[in-house]
Automatic annotation (TrEMBL):
Keywords: Signal
Domain of life where this protein originates: Bacteria
Protein name: Nicotinate-nucleotide adenylyltransferase
Species the sequence originates in: Arenibacter palladensis
Residues in the signal sequence: 1-19
Length: 170
């Protein structure tokens, strides 16, 4: 056991000795710092907030980071836009991109999603005993502006129905 401990210490020290060797004349190079940011930051800043459901946020990030040059129809010289549909099990985002990859318009439509806590509180405040039958989330983004962000909720209590609309437009 004494020999094992001695060998362990010996190998441990040799690792430190090799780590202290010279770099064989190689001089380190310092690179300039660069900042990378997604091209569609304006889109994300407008459509994504505390009232945005998680499933929608995931597709919004995919849309914002989508590489339009990966499309077979991509032509940098084309003046037209490229429409891309991002699908989830309960909704989709239809985004139009310019040739440089900027989102010009986006239409988000989701049904029967888990509402964010802030929206749930608004829905059930004063509606104790009611059950949510269905809901719909709609968001429209156009030319760097949020033109519509809305929840439509249908509540039921027995044979009674109540429809509610919540707008979160700017």
């Amino acid at each position: 056991m004494k020999q094992f401990a001695t060998l362990l210490i010996f190998f441990g020290l040799t690792c430190f000795l090799f780590a202290q060797e010279d770099n064989d004349g190689i001089t380190p190079v310092t690179l300039d710092a660069i900042t990378l940011s997604p091209i569609n930051v304006a889109y994300l800043n407008k459509v994504n907030d505390s009232h945005t459901p998680e499933v929608v946020q995931e597709l919004q990030f995919k849309a914002a980071n989508f590489d339009v040059t990966s499309l077979s129809e991509y032509d940098k010289k084309a003046i037209r836009t490229f429409d891309v549909i991002f699908k989830a099990s309960n909704g989709d985002i239809i985004a139009s991109y310019t040739a440089d990859g900027s989102i010009v318009t986006a239409f988000e439509n989701f049904e029967d999603i888990v509402l964010p806590m802030t929206v749930r509180k608004m829905v059930f405040d004063g509606n104790e005993g009611w059950k949510m039958e269905k809901n719909r989330y709609i968001c429209v983004f156009s030319e760097d502006n949020l033109t519509k962000k809305q929840y439509k909720v249908t509540l039921t209590d027995g044979n009674h129905k109540k429809k509610m609309t919540f707008d979160f437009d700017e």
